[in-house]
Amino acid sequence: MGLTHTTGLKRTAPAETERRRPRPGSERPNWLGGAAGWLWLAIVIVPVYWIFITSFKAQSSYYATNPLVPPAEPTLANYRLVIESDFPLYFLNSLIVTVGAVVPAVAVAFMAAYAIVRGGAHRFLRGVNSLFLMGLAIPLQATIIPIYLIIIRLHLYDSLAALILPSIAFAIPLSVLILANFIRDVPKELFESMRLDGAGEMTTLWRLAFPLTLPAVVTVTIYNALTIWNGFLLPLILTQSPDKRTLPLALWTFQGQYSVNVPAVLASVVLTTLPILILYVVGRRQLLSGLTAGFGK
Amino acid sequence: MPALAVFVAFGVIPLAGVLFLSFTSWDGLGDIQLSGLTSWQAVLGDPGLLHALWVTLLVMAASWAVQTPASILIGVFLAGRQRYRALLAVLYFIPLLLSSAAIAIAYKALLDPNFGLGAGLHIGLLTQDWLGEPVLAFSVVIFAVSWQFIPFHSLIYQGGVRQIPRSMYEAAELDGAGRVRRFFSITLPQLKYTIITSSTLMVVGSLTFFDLIFVLTAGGPGDATRVLALDMYKRGFQANLMGPASAIAVILVLVGLALALLLRRLGGGDAGASQMEGA
C-alpha cells in the first residue's frame, strides 16, 4: 500500500500494458504450466458440461444414457417445470437482495475509501481503516448468532431486509480495500486543481474520483453481486417462510423435494447461475484486472 | 460515515456480541441469561469440539496443500502468452460463479453411486459410495473446495507473476538458467508476498466452508466432515444451544486471527513494501 502517485493509472489496465510490452524472442512453451492448465481446464469443464447437458435430458433417459453424451432428444421440460414452480419468486428475492445490498454497499464503501485516502493522516480515519482491514479476517459465520439476535430484536426476522443489512456490512471491508487502492492511484494534482476551481469534497468525490476509478467500482460491484447472489448462510438463518427464500436456499430445498428428478435439479442450477454468468461475461475484463490489481500486488 | 455505521452494527458489534453470548445460556428465542462459564465448560469438555477442530484444521491443511501448488502453476501458465486466453479465462472462472450450494448439489448427483458419472460410464473406480465413507467424503470435500477456489487463487498468482520484472528473467536467461531453474530461483521467491496473501485468504476462508459441506455431506458420514462452522450451526440453530455455539464462534475467530497473524509474521510483517515493485 506504499503506492505513490507516480505509478499513475497504469494499474487499472495491467493486461493492456503487458500486451504491448515486447517479449524476449524464442520462448519455449511452458510445458509444466501448460499441462497443469489444460488438465485443470478438463477438471473444470467436465462437471460443468455434465450439469449443462443433463439439464436437457428427460428424466427417463437420465438413468439410461451415457452421462457424458448429449441427449438425443433435448427437452426443455425440466426448465418448464422449474420456471412454473416458485422459482421466479425466489429469483426476484435474490435480485432484490443483491441489488438492494450492492448499490448502497459500493456507494458507502466508495465514500469511506475516498475519506481514508484523502484524509489518511487523520488518526480517526487511520483507526477506521484498520478496523475495516480487521473486518477482512472476520468470518461471517462467527458473527451469525449475534446478527440473528439483532435481526430478531429489530423485528426484521424473516424479511428481505434481514438479508440486505448484514450483506452490506460484510461487503464493505473488501470493497474499501480495493477502492482505496485505486483512489490512491489518482494523481494528487488532479485533486488540487479541482480544489482550486472551488469544488467541494463531495463534488470532487463524485465528479473526479468516481469516474477515474470506475473500473474498480465495476470490479467491486460484480464481486459483491457474486458473493451476495450466492449467499447461503444468511437466508438459511435469517428467513423462515418459503416466500422469502433466495435462490441458493431454494436450490437446497428444491433438491430435497425433487431428489429423484436430477435433470430438473440441474436445470435449476443452470438457471440460478445464468444471471451471474451474464454479468461476468459482460464485466469480465474489468473484474479480472481489478481483482489482480487489488490482490496481486 | 455510513459505511462505518453499518459495518459496526453488523460486523463489529456482533463480534463483541458473540463473546458476550458465549457466557450466557440462550435458546435462540427466550430471554438471555448470564450463565458464567457453563457454555465454555460444556464446549471445551466435549470431545466433539476437539474432533470438529481437528477436522477443520485437516480441511485447512489439505485444501491449502492441494490449492497452492496448483494455483501457482496455473497462474504462471495464465500469465504467459497462449492462444484462447479469453476463452480460457471465461471457462476457468465458471466454478467461482456457481454458488457453493449449486456446486454441492451437482457433485452429489455426479458422485451418486447408483446413478452418477461412475455408474453411467460403468467405470468401477468411479462407482464408489463417495459420500458414505469417511475418508472418501473428506476427499470429495477437499476436491470440491479446490474446484471452486483454485480459479480465484490462480488469478491472484497470475497478477503476481505479471509484476515480476522481465529483466530478471532476461538476466537469468543470459546466465543460461533453464525454465525450471528460473521458476524456482525467480518466480517463486518473487511470489513470496503473493503466496502469503493467497494463503491468508485460503486459510481464513477455509474456516468458512459451511454452505458446501452443509449441503454436500451435512457433516457426515458420522462426523467425518463436521467442521467448526457446521458444529456451531448444529449446536446453535438445530439444538438451540446458542451459548456453546457462541463459544465455538469465538474459537473460530481466534483461530482465524491467530493464523492470519502467523502468516503475516512469516512475511516479515511488511507486505506493504513489496507492492511497490513491478508497477
Notable traits:
heterodimer, A: 297 residues, mainly alpha, B: 279 residues, 14 helices, 2 strands, 72% helix, 1% strand, globular
Sequence stretches where pLDDT stays below 50 over 5 or more residues of chain B: 269-279
Mean pLDDT of chain B: 78
SSE class of chain B = mainly alpha
User: What's the overall geometry of chain A?
Assistant: globular
N-to-C span of chain B: 32 Å
Global outline of chain B: globular
Assembly level: heterodimer
Describe the structure.
The complex is a heterodimer of chains A (297) and B (279). Chain A is an all-alpha fold. Helix content of chain A is 71%, strand content 0%. Chain B is mainly alpha-helical and 279 residues long. Chain B has helices at residues 2-21, 38-44, 47-79, 85-97, 100-110, 117-121, 134-162, 166-174, 179-190, 192-206, 211-216, 228-238, 242-266, 271-274; strands spanning 24-25, 33-34. Chain B has a two-stranded antiparallel ribbon with strand order 1-2. In chain B, helix 2 (38-44) crosses helix 13, helix 3 (47-79) packs parallel to helix 7 and helix 3 runs antiparallel to helix 10 (192-206). In chain B, 46% of the residues are buried.
